[in-house]
Amino acid sequence: MAPDTAVGAKTPATKLDIHPLKPVGAEIFGLDLSQNLDDDTIQAVEAALNTYGVIVFRDQDLGPAEQIAFTQRFGDVPRHVRQEYALEGYPEIHLISNIKEGERSIGSAYAGDGWHSDLCFTKTPARYLVLNAKELPRDENGKVLGDTVFASAADAYDSLPQETKDKIDGLRGIQQYHRRQAIKQQQREGDHARPDLTPEQLAKTPDITQPVVRTHEGTGRKCIYVNPVYTFGIEGMEEKDAEPLLKMLEDHIVEPEAEKVYRHTWREGDVVMWDNCLMQHEAITDYALP
Ligand SMILES: [Fe+2]
């Protein structure tokens, strides 16, 4: 569960209309993100992220330039290595779509299918992510597909036995972007297949290590920072020992689902923002692609 007060969080001057979600996250009402929000409001949103990890804003009408402007209020916006899926004219925006123009997928399809933290394979992963729903997949009855699920990697760390905390202290997970891309290409060949990484993209995504336990800069909370999508081992540990340890930690973040996972069913106009250290997320790819 989200703590009532995040450790080390500043008390914001602006009070937001916050409605907690279960078991994690919150909805915030009364803000129009397309406006130039004052600093106190931005600070209050940041405090809400520190406390709830993921926040939902409904009924927004946010264009790409406005989305970038809002996101930049919280720090630099890194550009995804796969610039072929950037929204045209906006390299900061990574387009997720199942639409094809001819043979070309206009965006990344099947993005995020598996629990992960975004850009953990880079030295400086994005601090926050802002996902803006413009057009949604639906089944034949009009039911929206493509939910996104969220779970707290900080709560998961807190609830580990002390013995496990001691065991993983100081370990580093090996993050391999190219390996994930190769797996996805095998899974999806001929169906929105992703192009091979170019030499430039490969050069930008060498294998790196990240701490298995990352300290969240806003609150000082410790978070489990390994995931089944990008983490393929633990530095200095044999695979036979690393694999079960990684699986145990990864499962601990999301199981049991009813207690730990918030499932967001999208509406057009939803903007969902999450803290990329405190939370992990997964896209439910239950939509049939054309
Ligand atoms: Fe993601």
Descriptive account of the structure:
The strands form six sheets. The protein has a five-stranded mixed beta sheet with strand order 1-2-3-16-8, with helices on one face. It is built from eight helices and 17 strands. It has a single domain, classed as Clavaminate synthase-like (Double-stranded beta-helix). The protein is of the alpha+beta class and 290 residues long. The chain has helices spanning 39-52, 64-72, 153-158, 162-168, 177-188, 199-204, 239-254, 257-260; strands spanning 17-20, 26-29, 54-57, 86-87, 90-94, 100-101, 104-105, 128-132, 148-152, 172-175, 208-211, 213-215, 222-224, 231-234, 261-264, 271-275, 279-283. The protein binds fe (ii) ion. The site of fe (ii) ion (FE2) has 4 residues, from loops.
| Coarse shape | globular
Number of helical elements? 8
Report the top-level CATH class: Alpha Beta
Q: What is the N-to-C succession of helices and strands?
A: EEHEHEEEEEEHHEHHEEEEHHEEE
Quaternary class: single chain
What's the number of structural domains?
Answer: 1
CATH topology: Double-stranded beta-helix
Q: Using the 3D structure, state the CATH architecture.
A: 4-Layer Sandwich
Specify the structural class.
alpha+beta
The stretches of 5 or more residues where confidence is low (pLDDT under 50) are 1-5
**Assigned CATH superfamily:** Clavaminate synthase-like
Largest beta sheet: what is the strand line-up?
1-2-3-16-8
Main beta-sheet strand count, sense and barrel state: 5 strands, mixed
Record field, number of beta strands: 17
| Binned strand content | 15-25%
Bound compounds:
fe (ii) ion
Distance between the termini: 39 Å
Helix content: 25-40%
